[in-house]
Amino acid sequence: MKSQGSSSDKNCKVSFRKKLLIIDSNLEVKDVERLKFLCIGLVPNKKLERSSSASDVFEHLLAEDLLSEGDSFFLAELLYIIRQKKLLQYLNYTKEEVEQLLPIRISLFRNLLYELSQSIDSENLKEMIFLLNDSLPKTEMTSLSFLALLEKQDKIDEDNLTCLEDLCKVVVPKLLRNIEKYKREKAAQLVTPPVDKEAELLCQGEEELVSQTDIKTFLEALPQEESWQNKHARSNGNRATNGAPSLVSRGMQGASANTLNSETSTKCAPTYRMDRDHRGLCVIVNNHSFISLGDRRGTHKDAEILRGVFQWLGFTVHIYNDVTKVEMEEVLQKQKCNPAHADGDCFVFCILTHGEYGAVYSSDEALIPIREITSHFTALQCPGLAEKPKLFFIQACQGEKIQPSKSIEADALNPEQAPTSLQDSIPVEADFLLGLATVPGYVSFRHVEEGSWYIQSLCNHLKVLVPRREDILSILTAVNDDVSRRVDKQGTKKQMPQPAFTLRKKLVFPVPLDALSL
């Protein structure tokens, strides 16, 4: 039976590649250029530059886990955009299906540039090149290569279109409407992303630890992309998809997180690649001492167990103690540019400190928004981590302080300060996971000798469930269940962790060969 299954899988792959060759034979040189342009930011530029055919591009998409026989929608999206809709049949999609699910991967910015390129004719292009003549190489360019060069020279990006607007005002004023439309859509995407209604339904009918408003606010931290991916997953039937459940784990007292996980997980979902040269980097920021705030006694226990567990999982671990605001920026810049990301599978960033709603404190008591930290590792800022899972675990309070007992302390400060929105906590793109020790508006607890409830539970569940090949979301749901059942000695203090994520696939860590000794 095993050999028959292997043979069937091989036949399936061969059949899929045959379809890709048929698609390749129907595409012209200009179509290949369009495909390469649309893949900027998703496939390394050097690989795209060396691609001379559509099949070369397909190989890169396969290597980057953007395309597979089980999930070909990204290629369908590309073909639809470049107006090769007749070729969708080879991927078992109809034009109507693709229209219903768009957009999935192509960003608003990339789509804008592509639309503009199709409206810039040869005369318009000559005039634009003339206006920027001193800063451009003396080579022949198409409208696509011209826009790609402006982007490469940092003359334009998703937040800065001034140069492009100036060119359009002089040469093609009508295109200013496209740019204004893009700005409106981008603002709407950031401010009012859609809320997953299925998650809201799961939150009804039980005693709440947080309000429905708090849960909705936290759900809105998930980007618009994720909701489209889930729509793709639901509409695609038995087709394997890259959409992970867009759910924030339950924030209700006594709720069974395992029930939530069993109801929402997709057993046949694809998994992130975990077979590169090394697992990746794990950064731990461990703040114990502050200028005027209380010492975080017991935090060394969290740092020690995090280091042990992630080294066991194959990560290279770096610990930074008592990090100031300036030092934090240095750490972020160093890790953002770390060349080791290129050969790694994953990235983990842990922060142990005091905090407030949507932000954490440096050791010199500067309040740093979580968004400011995570935004350093987007595909644009850190290409080596593009399409790879990026996990952030935060042991810090997200709300008002509760009077602690003798052996239990809270990582909360300044409850009177107005909270910031958690919409800004996760970058607006896929492959991020943010694990907070507590839900919005509540404290997290740390034992002065044994460490924090959340980090200790997280590490203990990783030790137990990774060997059982459980995925990270299943593990975090088990952590929720465990922490939610804990109380202090007086039975008056409880805690509920809160993950939010835009993961597209299951994240399953390979089982380490060596036993863990802590």
From TrEMBL:
- Where composition is biased (Polar residues), the residues are 235-244
Q: Which GO terms describe its cellular component?
A: cytoplasm
Q: Which GO terms describe its molecular function?
A: cysteine-type endopeptidase activity
> What SUPFAM superfamilies does this protein map onto?
Caspase-like (SSF52129), DEATH domain (SSF47986)
Q: Which InterPro entries match?
A: CASP10_DED2, Caspase-like_dom_sf, Caspase_cys_AS, Caspase_his_AS, DEATH-like_dom_sf, DED_dom, Pept_C14_caspase, Pept_C14_p10
- Keyword Transit peptide among record annotations: no
Instruction: Enumerate the spans annotated as Caspase family p20 domain.
Output: 278-401
Q: What GO biological process term is on the record, naming one? A: protein maturation
Q: What keywords are annotated for this sequence in UniProt?
A: Apoptosis, Hydrolase, Protease, Repeat, Thiol protease, Zymogen
Domain annotation DED: ranges: 15-93, 108-181
* Residue ranges of every copy of the Caspase family p10 domain listed in the record: 426-509
What Gene3D superfamilies does its record include?
A: 3.40.50.1460, Death Domain, Fas
* UniProt-listed PROSITE patterns: CASPASE_CYS, CASPASE_HIS, CASPASE_P10, CASPASE_P20, DED
- Check the record and name the Pfam families matching this protein: DED, Peptidase_C14
Q: Which family does it belong to?
A: Belongs to the peptidase C14A family.
Which protein is depicted? Caspase 10
Q: Which organism is it from?
A: Piliocolobus tephrosceles (Ugandan red Colobus)
